[in-house]
Amino acid sequence: MGTSTRLSRRSFLTGRQPGRAVPPRPPGVTAASVMACTGCGECVDACPEQVLTIAEGRVALEMAAGECTFCGTCSDACPESVFTAGAGMAHEMILGDDCLARNGVSCMTCRDACPEEAITVRPRIGGPFLPVLDPALCSGCGACVGPCPAGAITPQIREPADA
């Protein structure tokens, strides 16, 4: 006999296994509205930046592929009620411990890539400048994710107040 995995009712109904990360969602897609996604891929095909994908049968952002420009083409192309007008990103960006600057290597790639100037650098004695992310300025577009040579920037799911 094979090994069995015990799933909760929630895991069974959502199709997610415990311990697996929830993929980041595009702007305007909430935890509730993503359940209306049929995985048809119309939004993926319409995205001019090619940063959308279908993950676990639902629309998701592929941040390593580039940045979301919030153009709304995905929302216009969606035949379901998945996208909510005016809702922001359902994640925030986190600068992780793998950051080169935090490990003694001078790097400002994330700062240079950020179109919102949400990442600044703070000088420190005896080491390279450290990147600092201002969540109030960060749009969650993902422009900093792909260029990061250490892969140290990741989205952390949260539900914005307006979603």
TrEMBL record:
Descriptive protein name: 4Fe-4S dicluster domain protein
UniProt-listed PANTHER family: ADENYLYLSULFATE REDUCTASE, BETA SUBUNIT, FERREDOXIN III
One Pfam match: Fer4_7
CDD domains membership: NapF_like (cd10564)
PROSITE patterns listed in its UniProt record: 4FE4S_FER_1, 4FE4S_FER_2
Disordered, as annotated region: 1-26
Alphabetical UniProt keywords: 4Fe-4S, Iron, Iron-sulfur, Metal-binding, Repeat
Organism of derivation: Wenxinia marina DSM 24838
Keyword Transmembrane helix belongs to the record: no
Gene Ontology terms, MF aspect: 4 iron, 4 sulfur cluster binding; metal ion binding
Gene3D superfamilies linked to this entry: 3.30.70.20
Residue intervals of the 4Fe-4S ferredoxin-type domain: 28-57, 59-88, 105-124, 129-158
Highest taxon in the source lineage: Bacteria
